[in-house]
Amino acid sequence: MNLVGGVVLNEVFVEAAMLAAVRITAFLVIAPPFSFSGIPLRVKGMLAVTLSILVAPQAAQGLPASMDTGAFIVSLVSQLVIGALLGFMVFLVFSAIQSAGSLIDLFAGFQMSQAFDPLMQVNGAQLTRLMQMVALGLLFVSGGAELVLAGLFRTFTALPVTGFLAQDAGERLLPGLAQMFVAAVQIAGPIVVVLFLADVGLGLLTRVAPALNAFSLGFVLKILITLLAGGAVFLALPRIVEALLEDALQVMGSIT
User: Fold this and answer.
1) For 143, left (φ over 0), alpha (ψ -120 to 50), or beta?
2) What is the pLDDT of residues 4-49, one digit of tens each?
3) Where are the domains of the chain?
4) How many CB atoms lie within 10 A of CB 246?
5) 3-state class of 2 per DSSP?
6) Would the pTM of this model clear 0.70, i.e. be above it?
């Protein structure tokens, strides 16, 4: 401990807070819902500093009384990598909702009107952006954001600030990627099947009555089917977000 301006400064606490702040900041920049660009960077920075101070006593356990400059820099870099990887795993799990929206837009014929949303960092059509926006809102209003932070706090117990990731941590990204695609197909599967059957029916109708020009009516029919079936998906979206949140917490625990 050092005396600075009449105040006792605990060096171990400060070092632990700095290391924790690096991991938390990297996590908040990448992981949803905190990666939402509508949240000012100043607010994210204040949140990271506050959380690092709260978790510093836990992170200080096992921290050596004195660290040389080289070891401290190595720990900073490792915390940056750990926080970024944890955030990316959460981002990967919740990308299933965005991928499901993209599948629905593709089969519904909405992809021609896709655009980039700079706030949510999403490039897609109407349903892609709408589903992503609703999912982010559900994470905030349902307490999912607090659960994500609680999972991040638990990583400081499983993986101290002086520790390193397991050697097979990178290999666990592949199962997470496969899980994201499976979840996207499960979410969008019913609507995609219905739209595919609608295309097949329109094709058969065109073969039977070529003069009817069924595909000119197909756009209206597919929009109607998408809106009706999409309502069922939005009703189930809270349970989907809850299930994805549990998967994200399990993935965070598995790589630490």
Assistant:
1) left
2) 444 345 677 788 888 889 999 999 988 888 888 778 888 888 888 8
3) 2-254
4) 12
5) strand
6) yes
